[in-house]
Write a structure and sequence with these properties.
Blueprint lengths: L2 H10 L4 E2 L1 E7 L2 E7 L2 E6 L2 E8 L3 H7 L4 E5 L5 H6 L27 E13 L2 E13 L6 E3 L2 E3 L21 H6 L9
Antiparallel strand pairs: 1-9, 2-3, 2-6, 4-5, 5-8, 6-7, 7-8, 9-10
Length: 188
């Protein structure tokens, strides 16, 4: 990787993302890969997108798959993120799968989406895989967050939010009372 590519990658790393493990079943079993380039695309139909390096094994497997899973990791699942990124768990530590799921779903995730391939688009050195969500599950769990090359935790303590102390937060009532002022025609 050249210097300009490294700097560009570092620049993009300033955007905090959730952490997902994309899973797919194939003739040899289940394959998973840790992916941060995941986003929603559409509500109707329900579509999501995952960007995969075209040289990766996951990209090859997803190209011919009939379905794939998006496991949105919870804050306590850093070990799974590392495992599916190529740093395997100790041999005596099994990966726990949800036996009730229609496809490969990790247990304990913040959310899981069961998808069928919708489209694949050229994305330079990546392929942009769009999937139609056919089922999803959600748990009340804090997400695993990645920013600046490291895993992070959200500060969700009561009273700790971006607008704390500014008098602009929803608890201060200014959002509802100020909304009317935003609709005053110019010149009045």
């Amino acid at each position: 990787m050249g210097d300009s590519q490294r700097r560009f990658r570092d620049c993009l790393g300033r955007f905090a993302t959730g952490v997902t493990v994309i899973t797919v079943e194939h003739a040899g079993g289940v394959h998973g890969a840790t992916v941060g380039s995941f986003t929603s695309v559409s509500l109707d139909p329900p579509l999501v997108l995952v960007s995969l390096d075209r040289r990766s094994r996951m990209c090859d497997l997803l190209t011919g798959a009939s379905s794939f899973g998006v496991n949105i990791l919870a804050a306590h699942q850093k070990d799974l993120a590392l495992h599916f990124a190529g740093r395997p768990l100790p041999a005596d530590t099994p990966v726990s799968w949800d036996a009730e799921a229609t496809g490969p779903r990790l247990t304990g995730c913040a959310a899981h989406l069961d998808c069928v391939p919708w489209a694949a688009h050229d994305g330079g050195d990546h392929v942009l895989h769009v999937g139609q969500v056919r089922d999803f599950t959600v748990r009340d769990a804090e997400p695993l967050v990645f920013h600046g090359g490291a895993f992070r935790h959200l500060d969700t303590a009561p009273g700790h939010h971006a607008w704390a102390g500014t008098l602009d937060g929803p608890a201060d009532g200014v959002w509802s009372s100020a909304t009317g002022a935003l609709h005053i025609p110019l010149g009045h």
